[in-house]
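Throughout our pipeline, every protein is held as a single compact record rather than as scattered files. Nothing more is needed to write down the fold, since each code stands for a local backbone conformation. The record that follows is passed on verbatim for readers who wish to inspect the format.
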Amino acid sequence: MGTKVSTTSFTRVGTDEPHRSRRKAILAKYPQIRSLYGPDIRLLPSILALITIQLSLAVCATSLSWFPFVVLAYTLGGTITHWLSLGNHELSHNLCFYSTFANEMLAMTANFAQGIPSCITFKKYHLEHHYHQGSDVIDVDVPTEWEGRVFNNTWKKVIWVLLQPFFYAFRPMVVNPKPMSPKEALNNVVTIAFDIGFAYYFGYKAVLFNLLSTLLGMGLHPVAGHFISEHYTFALGQETYSYYGPLNYVTFNVGYHNEHHDFPKISGFRLPE
């Protein structure tokens, strides 16, 4: 369990990311796939329901002692807030409304139930992940060389997974910093204002529940396994991997990841088609 891992460096390839050429070849053979392109309004009631459930849980959790409070935050809260994160992933591709502004406003609303302003910054970096998958500096989903050197055995990698929310949040600021946009500032202001109001009316534990749920749900949690399964090289020459199991029911089908990268204009609801 404590031995060093067998792979000590990144796999380098001299070709561009594979999905552009795959998409072209697939569409040439199956042009009807284009009929699946575009927003899917089913995302709206799904996200609103998740927000309502999470905020209700947060209010109910204020009456709990600390142990059941943390257990509830990890189990239900972690699942729901991560589900919302993947809803915001869909919204970053404008897959609910035709209006970019409407998608971003819904994403900011989802952040209310997560307690952390993240959706606009996520979108800014995530689209580059699609256009420049695996490129040093540009694709900040790729762990740094430092992370690979330091977290170099099983137990250290467990710690790395636990700390995944922090690496995911701060890696872009270190590797590829960008100035804050007005929309990011708005995202920060409205989310923090909501947190303050929520704490005022329901107590600090309600906000803490949302924050803890979000952080636990992005770390060592079953629904967060896609962070590793999507792009870590398990077979030489394969850069993206898909998962077709039951966790797709609570992740907007993010497991269909090869399919998503091939066709980012198709909503998660339609990817299995």
